[in-house]
Records
---
Amino acid sequence: MRIRHVPVKSNQRVDIKRMREAISRSTCVLVGSAPNFPTGSIDDIEAIAQLGKEFDIPVHVDACLGGFLIPFMEEAGYKIPLFDFRLDGVTSISCDVHKYGYSPKGSSVILYRKPEYLHHQYMCFSDWTGGIYATPTFAGSRCGLAISLAWATLLHYGRSGYIQRTKEIIECARHISSAVESDIDGLRLLGSPDVSVVAFTSDSFNIYALIDDMTALGWNLNSLQNPAGKVLLAS
């Protein structure tokens, strides 16, 4: 398989026109982010799903970062564009339980619209000397502890708990993004902080110098490149 990277617009969302142009008769899947990690911008999943329907191509939504936030944003009082199986063209969604699901690392989920897609995930090797070897995932033997801890975490928080945490996180992220945009001279936002990520840069000073100074004060920040910037995740 060969990956074709599609450029993003100034708002850091994928350019749908360029995605359409990148489609060929060999294209096997279209992917959109909800949101992306660098800037927290959510791609136009509805438009990508429409492309998938038009060209009969499966559409995967990478919600690994936002999978336990964006499903609860509407109930927490925030408008959010459709990104899930309510869109006919969406065929699979991935999300990490160890991020905003708050379980220990090692647990992720992939959801399929139809069982037929799941069947393509199976791997079967019939020539192994130990007999027929089959596994439903890329990994063979796995520890069940991560699955048990993820399930216990889901039961602990419950739907109401995730809605409340989502509300607090989105409020925090939007407070920070508003301050960056309006109250702090020399900084500007990168992309659109749709969920929990706030990314910013500067046109007037070295943003990496600011990151170094904040790190010395005890902040734990992630740096960006192309363009240079800094990303903060509310949690």
---
Amino acid sequence: MLMIYIINTMKESEDYYKAFFREFDIKGNFQILQIAEDRDFSVSESGLTKYFLNQFELYDYLDRVINKNKKNIDNIRIVGTDEFDVDNLGFFREEYGIYGKKYEDSVLFRDKYRMKKQINFPSSDFHKIKSIAELVHMKNIKEKIVIKPLCGVSSKDVFVVQNNSEINDAMLNRNISDVLVEQYQEGGMFHTDGVVMRDTRRIICFASEYINNGLAYKENKPIGSVTLDYNSSLSSRLIKATELLLKQFPSSESYVFHAEWFVRGEDIVFNEVASRFGGGLICRCLRKKYGIDLVKLHLLSQIRDVDDRDIKLNESSTISGWIYVPQGENKEIESFLEQDIPSHINIISEKHHKKKGVQRKLSRSVDYISAYEIVQDSIRETRECLIKLAEITEKTINYKKNDKEK
């Protein structure tokens, strides 16, 4: 019988994992490993969840229990719910011979320089910088450049740079050899999400169009996306590009992916790809549009192969979309005013929360003050409604006045 250790960075409930095991008929026991600095106990009442003070303690425990049960290694699975865990779990799988994506397979999806050197596909100009002088020179010959960690995750610590002050902010406490610099791309940005199945190397893939782009949060703009109809011309082109791309990434196991693209007329330009499900409300919208839950397929792919039995495609005729509205830069929220939402906007879910203190530049694309998920009849209508919701939200946030404004 399988023993499955789940690194619960997403902090899903025990009931969530119980339902997941039932849905895919997984026979075995599981233990949830979770960092919870504010908890004064080590295990949950049920005994299914064990808490740790930090990541080191968690991985130390995992290493010891795997080593203790090496004789039953074929029945052990280790599952991560976040991209931060990809490399670490890959190491343990490789070291102990555990089923699942190994370290070398994982690192190609994390190391942006190796990723772009690996593939034969049109992409934006990119450079692994050797010195600050080279970085300043690039800034002077390009209107905008993007500075990102070589092995970053979830758009964290990515900077769009236009002047020396912003270069200084981007490079603060960072080694010059640890960054990749890319040409900033204006215009339409898209993402494809899906799963690669091991047995046939078949790819199940769905395309969506970003509202603004994946780095909009760096300019304090809303970020979101809308699903495309599966058989549309643009969707087919993006899916074909994704298939050609992923065939260049060797892997012995099933895995999920999130890839980003720019479309320039007839040209499709590759940005980057990650071995994870998409952020924001991407998975919820794909589930609404296509009936596919990529979060669960991501978990499943680390336990056993994903195959056709697990893919229950059921496309809706409507278009799903989501948007995150950020807090105003250098502003502190006092309250939300009452919103007047037009009746034709079909809101599936919404969430608002008041963050404490003054918001500086956002560090991640998933930071937001208001979030909406909607369903409409067309791509154009969905985009327009999401942008309208963002505008309404921005007008109904009551910010505290600073000394100059009083």
---
Amino acid sequence: MGHGTVCSYLLPFWDDLQRHLEMIKCKAIVSSKLSYPNIAKALNSMQKKLPVILIDNDELPETTIRFSEFANDLNVDVDCLKAVKRSAKDVAIMPFSSGTTGFPKAVVCTHKSVVDFNKATLDPKVISVEEATANYQSVMPGVLPFFHIFGFNVLMMNLMCVGVKLVTISQFKPEVFLETLVRHRTQHMYAVPPMIIFLAKHPAVTAAHLQSLKGIVCGAASLAESDVEALLKKNRNIRFRQGYGLTETNGGIVIGRNDDSNYASVGHPLGSCQIKITDLKTQEALGPGQEGEILIRGPLLMSGYYENEEANKEVFTSDGWLKTGDVGKYDENKYLYITDRLKELIKVKGFQVPPAELETILRTHPKVLDCAIVGIKDPISGEAPKAFVVPHAKQSIDPKELLEYVNTQVVAFKKIKEVQFVTEIPKNPAGKVLRRIIKEKYC
């Protein structure tokens, strides 16, 4: 980024990596050997040869570039390279945010918005860690995936500003995670709800595992106040806060303050950002205690979706407010609460799962006449996809057959958890699935 490169981070196991690479007009890829087979498959389908730089130190596939050699090659003639100057308005990062249709959208975040986000989180009222000194350095586990906005911007980029030691963990394994907490005496942690539930309720987790923790910030999905209380029973000295944000807001835009003990709320807006709640029908601003759609305005917002003016017109109001698609309210003390989602996306462990994508796959099964996917509550992942299926006449289907059919075609967090057979899928006159009716009737 310092040399003018635009960084777009992707889940390497996405079902359609090719589409993502083509959308951003990718010029080079930095990844690991673990992800290379999927990358090679995508590049082969694109009929393109892009530089692929791998961070591994062992034997690498042919045609790939070792990162250590790429970064330290002293034989490169840098005099021939063209100097690149970037302004605050230039693009810094382009993470992806899924829409309700299931098609990905590249989110354009400028250098200014990224810097403004990191400056806002350094506010003494909200900063979660102490800045490093000659004699002290905070330690935090880097278990959140860096291809997610929470892991990249909130965890990695933000903590680099204050010199935190980040102990990276390639994937969440309970025994490795607990060992990291104890061995490195981690004082602070950014987490998602499944991690909190694991620490709070798993019998293998004891107070000894949490004794060094001073503070936790949890985001990416909603968390019940009862789960927070269960965690704090193991260590009452933990300063626990929730936060709220979107990829379109550089990650976080609302967070609890250091002196907060309101675990049900996600806190207050960062910096000069503004929040308002509007009526779902009239779009008029609402007062304390009234539920409506959450709208956001401020310097942390994206400048728009990359080459997608139609989506930009849908999400931005004429006076610059971003429509989040989330439903919430605020109280007399300006604490924000997330109560529901206007969007149809299902949030599984902080990842967005578009129902339309799973429905498209399910409908290709020869015995399925119609179907709908809705999110149901799950104690571990927050939500999980459930399929409601109308079989073809006189067709007998084993639910396990449908689960295997869909789940072998998608990544782990998109897998359908349950199947229920119904006689019809409720829809409006335009043919749109009425998921709210399905939930009221069956869930």
